[in-house]
Structures
1.
Amino acid sequence: MGREFLSLFDHWAESYDDTVSGHDEQYEEVFRRYPAILKEIVERSGQYVLEFGSGTGNLTAALLREDKKVFGVEPSDAMKKAALQKGIPNVFHDGDFLSFPAPPFEPDTIVSSYAFHHLTDEEKKQAIHIYSNILHSGGKIVFADTMFQNQAAHQAEIDKAKAAGFNQLAEDLGTEYYPSIDVLKQIFEEEGFSTSFYQMNDFVWIVEAKKRE
Ligand SMILES: C[S@@+](CC[C@H](N)C(=O)[O-])C[C@H]1O[C@@H](n2cnc3c(N)ncnc32)[C@H](O)[C@@H]1O
């Protein structure tokens, strides 16, 4: 479920790491400070980490370097293959945000970078409900993704992308399910989490949601 954008990633897998390095002008701002964004997630994570949408494994590798146990969930075979080709240990499993195998440990942290916007807001709610049942009090969800303060800010970025001739970015911003911060905050709060949001560039914010006692 929530896999409607999967074919995009099967095609993007080979060049994805060039994009995150800033080589695609349209996505330069989206991926500005990418290493710092992954580092922030790692620093906010506990020892037992469940990761969704691991892609080519950049966040996975950063977590493993800090000796954390990681259970990666990724629906695209091509992305998993790209991660393994880089020599990242095979901690990856087929699945998605809503349907995934049980990790062999109790996660204290659930992480994701640049992926949660593939779910509609209704699916996001279902996902957070599932995670609320997995995590104990004090457990955390740490997600980095494109999100906007409100609808007007979202529309302003679409208009800016169009004016710059960044048609692919404009279409992406208009069709995928980038949330507004208020909606996301409400979803987390309703499922028993306290949230903090940190802006990392013009598009990407980190949400840290801690399960209340
Ligand atoms: C933009 S990439 C991000 C990869 C990596 N997390 C990073 O930060 O570079 C988005 C990833 O989410 C995956 N994805 C797409 N739909 C998904 C879903 N419903 N559940 C989990 N992952 C999904 C894609 O296959 C892709 O690997």
2.
Amino acid sequence: MITASVATRSEVLQQMEGFLKENIDTFLKPVETNWQPSDFLPDSRQDDFFDEVKLLRERAQGLSYDLLAVLIGDTITEEALPNYEAWFHELEDLNRNRDNGWAQWIRGWTAEENRHGDLLNRYLYLSGRVNMREFEISTQYLINDGFDLGTAHDPYRAFVYTSYQEMATNISHRRVGQLARTAGDEQLSKICGMIAGDENRHARVYKTFVEKIFESDPSEMMLAFEDMMRKKIVMPAHYMRELGVDMGKTFGHFTDAAQRLGVYTSHDYTEILDTLITDWKIEQLRDLTPAAEKARDYVVALPNRLRRVADRMPVPKLEYKFKWID
Ligand SMILES: [Fe+2]
Ligand SMILES: [Fe+2]
């Protein structure tokens, strides 16, 4: 085992590379048997295609305005996958050569994620409730505007971010699915459930990466975790906008709607942090540098501080008219 005092980030990641290769089959599902978007959508080769689309449209009528808006925002977020993939490729230590375990994971993760945007996009198109052109403009804007996550090309920070983010998307897709079921759209509920399942598995993988790094390089990993929490975890779609709307403004309305529905709230943010602190056994970390000890204490105390702030925050009431929905 490489000791914390001598190990550089490159060495730690290099040491983990074999672990990734050995476990890649448990981290990713085989392409041959994995679900595909068309498993959940009408088959346009079939004679009953139009009947199936009609049914899909009827079921989609039951979705509330806020729920539809959140679903569209979630889809735009998924469709900005090129940004996330590019962001991974900026992490040099993970992209040394194509057979490297890290590179395999990044490709496999991207390939699985790519199905999410495809499936939701097609559902929205067939639902008959979405102004697809406005939706597409928002998607193009988001890829064009990119994002700034504060991870500074550092894999340690990046894995804190992705652990958080995958847990957050798991929660929001799962809750949209539950609300869709209540609204009578069983098929959409299934769609969201399948996607949430992927997010959950991805979250577990990223959390395992961080757990492993904590074993070899606890102080540096702790400092990276603290840094990300001080900066706050911003959502990858934080620059989301609509045509004629300032960059990031639409994102605010989207998160307001999610907050109103209880799909993703500031309490969820804190609960994810609670989970990470428990899963990574932060309170039990020992033999840290003095700076890392301070970082640990900051992070451990953070959930209660966040809870106090969240309790004071009112649920946003202002209804907003999105261009995505006529
Ligand atoms: Fe996704
Ligand atoms: Fe994801």
